[in-house]
Amino acid sequence: QVQLVESGGGLVQPGGSLTLSCTASGFTISSADMSWYRQAPGKERELVARITSTGGSTNYADSVKGRFTVSRDNAKNSVYLQMNSLKAEDTSVYYCNAVRNLLSRLYPYWGQGTQVTVSS
Known about the structure:
The chain is built from no helices and eleven strands.
């Protein structure tokens, strides 16, 4: 059974840092592009950061460029989101996403989400 489990969310003050982790089971992430999305109340889910299966390419939402860093450790079957200089507007539920390439077909998977709240 394929699962993505996020951890590391919580309450942090503005300007602080958090690192989110996403650990996969049921498949190896080396075959998948991995992404972090977020969704705030009343808003659409948006892409925050993406890293390709080899880790050779990353892209970020303009709102987080220079503050967030996505990375992956295929040996640990995990992907991470380092978040620095957090702002109140970063408050959201953060979701891990995997798009697995299997025999030239793409299979998307989602985690259950982890809450990040930035507040003083």
